[in-house]
Amino acid sequence: MTKPVLFVTHKLPQAVESRASRDYITRLTPDNTSWATNGAETARLASEIGAAGILCVPGDRLDSACINALPPSVKIIATFSVGFDHIDIVAAKARGIVVTNTPGVLSFAVAECALMLMLTAARRTGEADRSVRAGKWSTQIAGVTLENKKLGILGFGRIGQKLASIVRGFPMEIHYRNPERVPSELEQGAIYHDNDAAFLQTIDFLSMHLPDMEGTRKWLNAARLDMMKRGAIVVNTGRGSAVDDTALIAALKSGHIRAAGLDVFDGEPKVNPAYLTLENVTLLPHIGSATIETRDAIGYKALDNIDAVLLKRTAPPDRVV
Ligand code: DGY
């Protein structure tokens, strides 16, 4: 039987690439040397190579125009991520294209990244690192501690809950805000808030884990930042669209927000240039899930999903539509 063609929009980890090429003709582009940069190109290349499946990443925009332009050979879009806001799932459903994601396997890595950003922002390690590189030995760089502080987790799904379970080892009180209260066994002692004001007025650290959707865009705006304690710290490893950058930049400049750690940006890979001028913000290029172990696990999970649809191995475990 001829192997189905799998259009891979970005380079895969070596172990995942080896497994993929066992069962599929994997193609980046027709000449297999580079990758697509936008939705129109993705659709054009998928047609050119007769793709049966597309393995994409959050940086790809598979909007309705792209999905409607895909050739009928495409049966599945499998994203190498838990987030699937970059794919128009309504358009995919209308075309009968299965969409899958990779929940679970990256929760620890992203939660770990959130904790790392909390520590980095609190202890000013970015500034300290830059001082050593600049030949200065700035021992006066003093941060704040996590000890006896209150952490607020915004979005208490898999990743938010994983962060709570890691932080339970710290002397911190954990609070959370979520559309609804989770069952008590998943709360792990975290305190639920059913309104933004009480939540934001209580916490010293805000860790954001919101998906990009109607109702979450620009969630952290000037009004909500004003509700926060002076000197609070903001960390975002969810989606950049949940932050009103202009408002956060103003709060970082005034010192109302002491520091921020951002792994995700509205319109990434573009970053609001004002962030680049601020010492009290740590900027990462969306590497929340980027550990070698996790990237392999994400790749295997994405391939399990593709195998289920294209090779009819098992029911796709992570079907979104
Ligand atoms: C995802 O997989 O959606 C996350 O953004 C990884 O950081």
Automatic annotation (TrEMBL):
<comment type="similarity">
    <text>Belongs to the D-isomer specific 2-hydroxyacid dehydrogenase family.</text>
</comment>
<dbReference type="Pfam" id="PF00389">
    <property type="entry name" value="2-Hacid_dh"/>
</dbReference>
<keyword id="KW-0520">NAD</keyword>
<feature type="domain" description="D-isomer specific 2-hydroxyacid dehydrogenase NAD-binding">
    <location>
        <begin position="115"/>
        <end position="288"/>
    </location>
</feature>
<keyword id="KW-0560">Oxidoreductase</keyword>
<feature type="domain" description="D-isomer specific 2-hydroxyacid dehydrogenase catalytic">
    <location>
        <begin position="39"/>
        <end position="313"/>
    </location>
</feature>
<dbReference type="InterPro" id="IPR006139">
    <property type="entry name" value="D-isomer_2_OHA_DH_cat_dom"/>
</dbReference>
<dbReference type="Pfam" id="PF02826">
    <property type="entry name" value="2-Hacid_dh_C"/>
</dbReference>
<dbReference type="InterPro" id="IPR006140">
    <property type="entry name" value="D-isomer_DH_NAD-bd"/>
</dbReference>
<dbReference type="GO" id="GO:0016618">
    <property type="term" value="F:hydroxypyruvate reductase [NAD(P)H] activity"/>
</dbReference>
<dbReference type="GO" id="GO:0005829">
    <property type="term" value="C:cytosol"/>
</dbReference>
<dbReference type="InterPro" id="IPR050223">
    <property type="entry name" value="D-isomer_2-hydroxyacid_DH"/>
</dbReference>
<dbReference type="GO" id="GO:0051287">
    <property type="term" value="F:NAD binding"/>
</dbReference>
<dbReference type="InterPro" id="IPR036291">
    <property type="entry name" value="NAD(P)-bd_dom_sf"/>
</dbReference>
<dbReference type="GO" id="GO:0030267">
    <property type="term" value="F:glyoxylate reductase (NADPH) activity"/>
</dbReference>
<protein>
    <submittedName>
        <fullName>D-3-phosphoglycerate dehydrogenase</fullName>
    </submittedName>
</protein>
